[in-house]
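Sample intake — Lactonase family protein
Collected from: Mucilaginibacter calamicampi
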Amino acid sequence: MNKLFLALAILLPVLAIGQKKEKPAPKVYNLIIGGYTNAQGGKGITVYRFYAETGRTAYLGEIEAQNPTYLTVSPDGKFVYASSETREGSVSAFSFDYVSGSLKFINKQLTAGANPVHVTIDKDAKNVVASNYGGTMSVLPVNKDGSLGPASQTIKGEGKGAHPQRQTGPHIHSLTFSPDEKYALYADLGADKITIAKYKANKVPAISPEDEVVEKVKPGSGPRHMEFSPNGKFLYLVNELGGTINAYSYSKGKLNLVDSLNMSAPEFTGNAGADIHLTPDGRFLYASNRGTANELLAYAVDPVSGKLTYLQRYPTPTEPRNFVIEPGGRFLILAAQKGNLVQIYKIDKGNGALVAQNNAISIAAPTVLKLVSAE
């Protein structure tokens, strides 16, 4: 008996050391805001401090940039990359001091396509990928100092869709990496498809067209943005033109449609689905709908099937675009472009309900938000 107790006394501390404790979400963030800088727009990229325990904000500063309508942040939080949505598309690199919230321009590179509307970076910070609404997608290598090299690969989209005005040719709208980053999935709004290709960060070209898989969506849907569930088993897609959400099961580069829902009320026409995100625990999904709807929709997620159950729709300021969910699951922060506001919502973790807070940020034409730990 004494030997058993002795064995347990030795083993239990070892087991305790082996257990991984979940790191708590930060209490303080930097909220980075991008948007349009035309006559009705702002100066460029603006940074606020965001306090996750209260939802309060404080202005830190801004830097000039041309139409930085989409942003991505390096995994270590030290660099910000901004797409410039212009006819001669480009991506700019900035160093970022997460303590002070200050940005400094490093360099920029052309995206080999017009109007880049989405930009993302892989987890090893090897490449930034820009999706051009003009129909191409470019891979930009990231140097050790955070600067960008010239495009190492450019992919030209192919095909068209059913919409007579919006789908006369390809419009690549976003790229999402699979959770293991072995695959790159990119949504083509103009050709009604998701293309799935193998991805190797250290290889040139990084995105392999060999053995690519194409997942077609309902004609006229216009796929826009995607997000994987936290467990990586499901992928959710918001369709801009059709105003619908598709839910897929996912495994090793293959998608299987399990659900599709209409975002709008039966009497509404003129859908304009914009963005889609899940809470960190994967229990709730939210999507923004523009057009004349101007709303956020909330859904419950079935953890086994991945299917969605509609919960509630919430009115928003005009033209809700991109939004972020604070990593602790406490707040949802929304950019409303034509409302010239960044609206903050408190999330009820029990039922997913949203409550608008009374401390919206007034800012011209915001379109994209990123949260970076300030701790």
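Post-analysis note: The chain has one helix and 29 strands.
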